[in-house]
Design the sequence.
C-alpha cells in the first residue's frame, strides 16, 4: 500500500514533464543535404507533395488529407517494418520549393524524438543541378533528466540523421537514374 | 539556409533575405577551402560588406545605445549547441570573442556593474562566471540538477538560478560565489526577473502555469499568480509595476500587476512564444514556431505588428537606449537587430550554433 503510494507519487512529476514536452533537455538540430543532377523544379515534382513521402525508402505508405495547405494538411506515414508517424504541414511555398512540417504524434520506439519540426527545401544551383536540404529541430525522446541510452540526445540525432540520409541518398539515386 | 520569410515587411525585409542568401552561398563556397575559424571571419566580413552595400536608410552599420556604466555596447550570447558564449560588438556588428563553455549554455544575466556575465550550463549542472572584458571564465559554481533561467538583483547583486528539475530557485552570493540558499517554487521554474528596486524576484513556474513573487529580503514566496499555459520568459517593466510572461503552450502573453499579484490581461501572440523585451511603449515577443516578433502596444495591449525574423527566435532584450532590440535566432544562428522605431530588422550577425541568449544579455 505504502509502496504503491510512493511509486504513484514518483510517477506524478514524470507524467507532468512528459506532458510538458519542452525545454528541460537541450533542443537538437540536424541538417543533411544532397546535390542532385536535376533542376530544382524536377526534384520538387517528386518531393513537393506533402501527401506523398513514398519516395523515402523507409516509408510503406502515406495517407492524409488537406493537400498542401498549411495548418490544414495532415499525413500519417506507415513505415516498412511497422510503426506510424503523424505529421502536420505548417508552411508551404511551392515557388521557393520549401515546406515545413511537424510531428504531431509518434511513439518514441519508432522515432526517439519529441517536439520535432522539419524543413525540406530544394535550391536550384544552375547547370541543371540542385541542392536538397532537410533540416530538423527536436528534443530527445526522454524529457526528464538522465535519459536511458536509447532515448538520449545522441540517439535522437542519430535516428533523424539516418532518416534524412536514407531519404536524400535514395532520392538522388532515383532522379539521376531517371534523368 | 532559411531566409524564406514572406516579404510582408517591406523592402528592407527583401534586402535582408537577399543579403542572407547571397552571403550564405558565398560562405559555402569559401568553406571548402578555409578552416572553420577563417570561414567565420569571411562570413562576418561578407555580411558587413552586404550591409554597407544596401544603400541609404537600409542598414546603418553602427547603432547607438552604449551601456552607461561600461561605455560598451555588447551582447553576451549563449550558443547552446556550439557550447560557446560569444561577445558581439553591437557598434560594429562583429563577433569579437568566443568563450568555450562546456555544458550547453542557455541562460545569461549580467552583474549590476555590467562587467560579469553569469551563464547557466544545464548539462554541466553549474553556472559559469565570466569576466566579460577579460573574456574568460572566473569560476564555475555547481547548482542543482537543471539550472536554466538566471537573474541578478540589480541592487544587492545576488544571483538567482531557476532549477528546472529541482523546482526551486538557488541564491548565489556575488562575493563568495557560493550557493547560500534556495526558495521552493512551482514546477520547472524557467525565466526569472527582478524588480528594479531589487525587492521582488519573479519566477515563471512553467509546469505550474504560474508566476511566484518572492521577497528578496526574507526569500519568502509572497504571492502566486496564475498566468497562461506554460510560462517561460518573464520580464519586469522599468517602473517595477508590471510583468509580462511568454506562455509557450497557450501562445499568449500574460500581463501581471505586480503590486496586486494578479493577471490583468492576456494578449494572443504567434506560436510558441519564448521571451519578452520591453522598449518604449511596446513589448517585443519572440514567437519560436511562427518565426516572428509580435509587437504589443502596451497601452492598448494589442499586437500591432509581426516582424519576420530568423527561424526559432528565442532570447530577446532591449539595449540601454531603447532604440534597438536584439534577438537570438536559435535555428538561424543569428543575432538580429530590430529598430524599435521603424519595427524592422536592420541586420543579422552570424553567431555560433544554437544561440539562445535567454535572459539579460546586453550591455
Sequence:
Amino acid at each position: 500500500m505504502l509502496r504503491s503510494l510512493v511509486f504513484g507519487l514518483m510517477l506524478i512529476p514524470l507524467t507532468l514533464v512528459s506532458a510538458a514536452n519542452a525545454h528541460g533537455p537541450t533542443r537538437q538540430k540536424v541538417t543533411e543535404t544532397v546535390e542532385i543532377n536535376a533542376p530544382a523544379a524536377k526534384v520538387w515534382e517528386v518531393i513537393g507533395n506533402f501527401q506523398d513521402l513514398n519516395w523515402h525508402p523507409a516509408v510503406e505508405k502515406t495517407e492524409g488529407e488537406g493537400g498542401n495547405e498549411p495548418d490544414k494538411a495532415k499525413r500519417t506515414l506507415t513505415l516498412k517494418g511497422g510503426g506510424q508517424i503523424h505529421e502536420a504541414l505548417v508552411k508551404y511555398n511551392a515557388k521557393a520549393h520549401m515546406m515545413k512540417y511537424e510531428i504531431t504524434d509518434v511513439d518514441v520506439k519508432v522515432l526517439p524524438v519529441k517536439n520535432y519540426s522539419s524543413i525540406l527545401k530544394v535550391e536550384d544551383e544552375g547547370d541543371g543541378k540542385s541542392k536538397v536540404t532537410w533540416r530538423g529541430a527536436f528534443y530527445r525522446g526522454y524529457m526528464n533528466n538522465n535519459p536511458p541510452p536509447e532515448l538520449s540526445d545522441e540517439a535522437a540525432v542519430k535516428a533523424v540523421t539516418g532518416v534524412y540520409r536514407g531519404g536524400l541518398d535514395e532520392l538522388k539515386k532515383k532522379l539521376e537514374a531517371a534523368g | 539556409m532559411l531566409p524564406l520569410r514572406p516579404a510582408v515587411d517591406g523592402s528592407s525585409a527583401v534586402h535582408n533575405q537577399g543579403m542572407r542568401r547571397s552571403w550564405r552561398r558565398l560562405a559555402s563556397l569559401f568553406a571548402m577551402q578555409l578552416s572553420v575559424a577563417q570561414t567565420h571571419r569571411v562570413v562576418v566580413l561578407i555580411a558587413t560588406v552586404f550591409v554597407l552595400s544596401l544603400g541609404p536608410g537600409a542598414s546603418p552599420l553602427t547603432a547607438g545605445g552604449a551601456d552607461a556604466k561600461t561605455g560598451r555596447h555588447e551582447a553576451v550570447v549563449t550558443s547552446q549547441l556550439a557550447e560557446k558564449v560569444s561577445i558581439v560588438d553591437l557598434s560594429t556588428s562583429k563577433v569579437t570573442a568566443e568563450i568555450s563553455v562546456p555544458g550547453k549554455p542557455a541562460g545569461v544575466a549580467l552583474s549590476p556593474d555590467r562587467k560579469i556575465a553569469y551563464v547557466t550550463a544545464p548539462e554541466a549542472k553549474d553556472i559559469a562566471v565570466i569576466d566579460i572584458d577579460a573574456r574568460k571564465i572566473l569560476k564555475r559554481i555547481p547548482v542543482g540538477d537543471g539550472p536554466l533561467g538566471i537573474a541578478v538583483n540589480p541592487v544587492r547583486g545576488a544571483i538567482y538560478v531557476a532549477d528546472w528539475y529541482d523546482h526551486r530557485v538557488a541564491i548565489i552570493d556575488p562575493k563568495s560565489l557560493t550557493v547560500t540558499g534556495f526558495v521552493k517554487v512551482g514546477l520547472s521554474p524557467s525565466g526569472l526577473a527582478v524588480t528594479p528596486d531589487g525587492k521582488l524576484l519573479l519566477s515563471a513556474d512553467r509546469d505550474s502555469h504560474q508566476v511566484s513573487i518572492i521577497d528578496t529580503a526574507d526569500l519568502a514566496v509572497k504571492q502566486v499568480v496564475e498566468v497562461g499555459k506554460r510560462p517561460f520568459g518573464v520580464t519586469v517593466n522599468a517602473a517595477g509595476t508590471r510583468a509580462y510572461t511568454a506562455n509557450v503552450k497557450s501562445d499568449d502573453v500574460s500581463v501581471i500587476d505586480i503590486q496586486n499579484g494578479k493577471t490583468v490581461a492576456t494578449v494572443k501572440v504567434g506560436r510558441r512564444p519564448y521571451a519578452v523585451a520591453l522598449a518604449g511603449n511596446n513589448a517585443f515577443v519572440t514567437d519560436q514556431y511562427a518565426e516572428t516578433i509580435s509587437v504589443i502596444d502596451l497601452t492598448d495591449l494589442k499586437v500591432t505588428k509581426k516582424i519576420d525574423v530568423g527561424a526559432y527566435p528565442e532570447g530577446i532584450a532591449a539595449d540601454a537606449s531603447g532604440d534597438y532590440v536584439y534577438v537570438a535566432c536559435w535555428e538561424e544562428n543569428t543575432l538580429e537587430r530590430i529598430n524599435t522605431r521603424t519595427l524592422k530588422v536592420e541586420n543579422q550577425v552570424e553567431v555560433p550554433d544554437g544561440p539562445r541568449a535567454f535572459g539579460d544579455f546586453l550591455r
Q: What stands out?
A: Residues 11-31 of chain B form the longest helix (21 residues).
